[in-house]
Specification:
This protein is mostly helical. It folds into 2 domains: about 80 residues, Rna Polymerase Sigma Factor, Chain: A (Orthogonal Bundle), CATH 1.10.1740; about 60 residues, Arc Repressor Mutant, subunit A (Orthogonal Bundle). It has 8 helices and no strands. Helix 1 crosses helix 4. It holds the Pfam family Sigma70_r2.
Length: about 160
């Protein structure tokens, strides 16, 4: 099956197959996902689809198997949660964490990444160099500028600056 033939096959059958899987599954979004994934798998096997002579049946079967696989995964995950009990309650972020995240969002992307790698992931400058491919001096510059920007953005408004300083 040529590229053009596969594109024509897709255009001609995707709506019908999605409708069929929707009826089988009862979930339109799930049907759309598994049909698209089946077409992706079919794309790499388009020569086999052509020789089989029943490409629509092949796509439908693959889509159904993908849906069943997803069901099994979800059921196993639900069973695991039941066995381990309810997850512990985790408090939401406090005002300080929210302020920090908002201040980090205002930094340029590279500074934010560097600050996160260094302070949250506990990576050294050398490890950040290895991960990002940037020079050590660039990393140090990002850290210095990021700290300065965060200090300015996270300054407690209740504390007045000393005008004589």
């Amino acid at each position: 099956m040529t590229v053009e033939e596969f594109e024509e096959f897709y255009a001609r059958t995707v709506a019908r197959l999605t409708g069929q899987l929707y009826v089988m599954l009862g979930d339109l979004h799930e049907a759309q996902d598994v049909v698209q994934e089946a077409f992706v798998k079919g794309w790499s096997r388009r020569r086999q689809l052509d020789s089989d002579g029943r490409p629509e049946a092949w796509i439908r079967t693959v889509a159904w198997r993908l849906a069943v696989s997803r069901w099994r995964f979800r059921r196993r995950a639900a069973d695991a949660w039941k066995r381990s009990g309810a997850p512990p309650h985790v408090e939401g972020p406090g005002p300080d964490q929210v302020a920090l995240v908002e201040a980090l969002r205002e930094l340029p992307a590279q500074q934010r990444r560097t600050m996160t790698l260094h302070y949250l992931c506990d990576l050294t400058v050398e490890q950040i160099v290895g991960e990002t491919g940037q020079s050590a001096s660039t990393i140090k510059t990002h850290l210095a500028r990021g700290r300065t920007a965060l200090a300015h953005r996270l300054q407690d408004p209740r504390i007045e600056e000393d005008p004589g300083a």
